[in-house]
Amino acid sequence: MAYEYNVTQKRYHTLDYYLKTKYHKKVFKVPLNASFSCPNRDGSKGVGGCTFCSAMGSGDFAGNPQHALKQQFDEVMQIMHQKWNDAYYIVYFQAFSNTYAPIDVLKRTFEPFIHQNDVVGMSIATRPDCINEENVAYLKELSQYFEEFWVELGLQSAYDKTALLIHRGYFYEEFVKAVHLLNDAGIRIVVHIIDGLPHETEQMMIQTIKKLNQLPIFGIKIHMLNVIENTPIAKDYLNHKFYLLSETEFVNIVVNQLQYLKGSVIVHRIGGDSDPKHLIAPQWALKKMNVVNQIDKKMEELDAFQGEKFK
C-alpha cells in the first residue's frame, strides 16, 4: 500500500513531508525565549506551573532569554547553517505562554520578524486559557504576513481528572473554546499531548486522539512524559506513586494512536528534548531518533498507516 503523505518512507503524515512538498528545500524552526510568564506560575491560577514543566517553561533549548530576540534568532541560525546553508525559517516562540501579555507587548515581540529575510512562518506556543477574542483578533492580523502561522496549544490530555492531577489549571472545555476561536479566525492549531501521564491507560491516551479528531486541528506533537529534576512530578516518581512507560510500551501506544489519528493531521513531532543534565527518567527518551525508528519499524511490521482506524 502506498501512503498518500510519504516522501521519506514514513507511514504517517509528517511535518517534513508537508514542508518539503510545499517549499522544496529545508525549512527549520528557530526556537526563541521571549521571557513571558504563565498564569499557572505567576499566581493568577497557581505557582510552579504544571507538575511536569521544567524551570525553563518547556523551552530548555530555546534561545538565551538574557539576549534580545533578534540576537537569539541570529545565534540559532548560525548553528543551523552549519548543516543547512540554504533554508527558510519558521520563528518559534517556544518557552512559557506567548500570548500571556497585553497586545502592545505582543506587537513588540512578534512584529520585528515580519520582514525578516527568508522567514516564511511563525509558530506561537501558549495555553488555551491565554487565548481570548482580543488577542485572537490581533493574531489574525499578524497571520497575514506569513505563509505559515500556527498557534501551539499544550493540552497533554483530554481528561479533566488528569488535568487536576498535573495541576494544568484549566479544563478540556476551555481548550475546545480556544480551538474554535482560533479556527474561526483562520489560524492553524498544533496540539501538544503527553503519553504516560500518571495513571493514564493506553485506552485513555487513544481517547485523547479520538477527541482531537473531532476538532479542526492542523497538527499534533506526541511527547513521552519526561521526569525533570526539581519538578513536583519528579517527587511523585521518586516516591513510586506512578510508573513510567517503557520504551516498548511507548512505541506500541504511539503506533496505535497514529492509526486512530485522522490522516490530514500533520505529526509535527514524536518524542521530545530534555536536558540530559536534568532528566531523571526515562533515559531511553534521550535517544529520540532510535525511538522514532522503532515506531517506523513497528508500523512497517504491522503494515499500519496513520488514519486507518479513523472513523
Q: How would you portray this structure in words?
A:
This protein is an alpha/beta fold and 311 residues long. The chain has one domain: Alpha-Beta Barrel (TIM Barrel). Helices cover 34% and strands 17% of the residues. The chain contains 10 helices and 9 strands. The longest helix is centred in the C-terminal third of the chain and has 15 residues, at 288-302. It is globular and about 45 Å long.
Give a short synopsis of this structure:
The protein has 311 residues and is α/β, with parallel strands linked by helices.
CATH topology: TIM Barrel
Kindly provide the name of the CATH class: Alpha Beta
Structural class: alpha/beta
| CATH architecture classification name | Alpha-Beta Barrel
Strand content: 15-25%
Q: Main beta sheet: strand number and arrangement? A: 7 strands, parallel
Helix content: 25-40%
- Which strand order spans the largest sheet, edge to edge or round the barrel? 1-2-3-4-5-6-8
What labels describe this entry?
TIM Barrel; 10 helices; two-stranded antiparallel ribbon; globular; seven-stranded parallel beta sheet; alpha/beta; 311 residues; 34% helix
